[in-house]
Amino acid sequence: MLGINENDRWRLGFHLMPPTGWLNDPNGLCEFNGEYHVFFQYTPDNPEGGMKYWGHYLSKNLVEWEYAGIALSPEKEFEKCGVYSGSALVAGGRMNLFYTGNVKLQGDYNYITDGRQANTILVCSEDGRTFGEKKCLLTNTDYPENLTCHVRDPKVVPGKSIGAENNKNYMFLGARTQDDEGEVLVYESSGTKNWKLVNTLTSTEKFGYMWECPDAFMLDGRKILSVSPQGVEEQEGNYQNLYQSGYFELTGRFEGSYRLKRFKEWDRGFDFYAPQTFEDSHGRRILIGWIGMPDDPGQRNPTVARGWQNALTVPREVFLKDGKVMQYPVKEISALQKKEETLRVGESSRAMRMYDAHIETKVNSDIIVTVSDGIKLQYSLVDHYFTLEFLKEYDLGCGRRKRSVYLEKCSAIRILADTSCLEIYLNGGEEVFTTRFYTDSGASSFCIEKGAEAAIYWEMNPMKYIVPENIL
User: Fold this and answer.
1) pLDDT of 408-419, one tens digit each?
2) For 299-337, what is the HEC assignment?
3) Contact 63, 333 (CB under 8 A)
4) Is 25 annotated in the active site?
5) Of residues 25, 215, 356, 418, which has the active-site annotation?
6) CA distance 283 to 43
7) Distance of CA 66 to CAs 106, 240, 381, Å?
8) CA-CA-CA-CA dihedral for 73, 76, 77, 78, to nearest 10
């Protein structure tokens, strides 16, 4: 079962989600042979997770998707406990997939400093749909001795994409040291099979105990290192989730001497983790993240009772504007819009399963927008904080309560609402909040209470899904 479904009011209409079971990290994002490929961590038979596979979606236009089934399964000894996260490198006319083969030994182990194998695996495809023989490239014995068993999530990129002065490829691996500090290992190769450690990237002061899901790229000459650190404590209103996802701007060289600037979060909402990016044939840097938050006991998803859990964000273009790193839904999403409508201040829209609302706010005014009465979006001129708050008496957030971000001004708000997911973009993508929410009907409305004259909005059509008969 894919896409919106009248028998399940919370099935999403324009976000990728698991056909059944559990979804987490986006993997292997790329454009290959004229098609976009989105792989994802997948446990098809358990909505609360378990043995990990790679599920596979394909699209020619980012709004019509084909579910291609399970692409990678834990078949070999070096991956017998799960096909974990990784990336795609399109080179030599092939799609090269790199990922972590997880092995947990049986015995009395803590699985941090012992008992776990984190193997880096390569598998190739000539057509983007069928995959060849798997090859183990690196094992724990190949990683530095000061590391724990937690080394994973290889991101492989061509040197030119990170400003390296050669034609080599570079692999970035997330790691946890014996001193419980997060870092990223940088490997170099003239091809795809033989890798040499050339650098280690970390912060000058401890910033979490593990850095997962690394990514590295350039935006108009600026170098970006994206990571998902675990174990970072909340500081001055930042890092409010259990685990974080964000980026450092890097000066110097990924493969040489460097300095990391201050960490900036990708998304301020309750449900965002493990993002990955890729460059498409139009030269766009596209980001997709996991709409979920692992291990947080304070928030729940009632879709578990319906046999599925979690989703992926809409594809977002990442770009620079006025010196700031911005992210905004790719323009293709607008193809799902229906007839344009207008909403005046004080009015409430009709209830819709899916909609796209654009609100131009007043200068020098507090702002209040409500969603289905139980969610308040508020900007205060007193302290310059924008806040997403779930009101307790409604509990549309199923345990989620409040997230905020400092914002010098709030000139525009875009709300993408999809049955049980909100993506909220501020100032054209300067800040973003992603969260799950659950109304009884699976539909929601919105109301501008203060701070804007009007909004334009569109009810949205669901994305189209193709499921070959031999897949499900």
Assistant:
1) 999 999 999 999
2) CCCHHHHHCEECEECCCEEEEEECCEEEEEECHHHHHHE
3) yes
4) yes
5) 25
6) 33
7) 38, 36, 46
8) -80
